[in-house]
From TrEMBL:
Family annotation (Pfam families): Chromate_transp
Membrane topology note: Multi-pass membrane protein
Protein name: Chromate transport protein
Localization terms from the record: Cell membrane
Entry GO terms, CC: plasma membrane
Regions crossing the membrane: 7-27, 68-92, 113-134, 146-163, 168-185
């Protein structure tokens, strides 16, 4: 259980930018230690984006409960938030003294692109997992099994266009996606 606590503590410390910035770290955690599969992570991302709560909190609780039961969930969640809370308290204390410092301003300027890169990497991982079925391809080595059903891709493009140009409330799109997935068995 100590490894679980340590790994989620590291995710909390290094995932600057929160939410989506934690996804690359969570992918690595799932692959390296088997606390959850990439499919479970994608499911949790979908749930986290449609419910209150941060992806990191939801995944740490889920992984902790899966690995060690109730107390594993509690400890993994606490370990995820402990580092950032300490960092925020230290920054808040020091900000008054150093907010006009060139070094502090430069540090924040550098953190923005790093965070954007983490989020972009996470977004590409989710996009690839949504559009391509890597496991089916590995099992069959048939190129046609690589691409997920064409309707899924068409639906994703259609929803992207709706969101971009029609300004439809995303909640309706989430509900429509869930209903369509249930009806079509996707």
């Amino acid at each position: 259980m100590l490894r679980l606590v340590w790994e989620f503590f590291k995710v909390g410390i290094f995932a600057v930018g929160g939410g989506m910035a934690t996804i690359p770290f969570l992918y690595e955690l799932g692959e390296k230690f088997g606390y959850f599969s990439s499919e479970e992570l994608l499911d949790m991302i979908a749930v986290s984006e449609s419910t209150p709560g941060a992806i990191g909190i939801n995944m740490s609780t889920y992984a902790g409960i899966n690995a060690y039961g109730f107390w594993g969930g509690i400890l993994a969640t606490i370990s995820l938030i402990t580092g950032p809370v300490i960092i925020i308290l230290l920054i808040a204390r020091a900000m008054d003294k150093f907010k006009s410092s060139k070094i502090v301003k430069d540090a924040f300027v550098t953190l923005r692109p790093a965070t954007a890169g983490l989020i972009l990497g996470a977004m590409s991982s989710v996009l690839l997992a949504t559009l391509f079925n890597i496991e089916a391809f590995r099992a069959s080595m048939n190129i046609f099994s690589l691409i997920k059903p064409i309707p899924v891709i068409i639906f994703a493009v259609f929803l992207t266009v709706l969101l971009k140009f029609k300004k439809i409330n995303p909640i309706f799109i989430i509900i429509a996606g869930a209903i369509l997935g249930i009806v079509l068995g996707l």
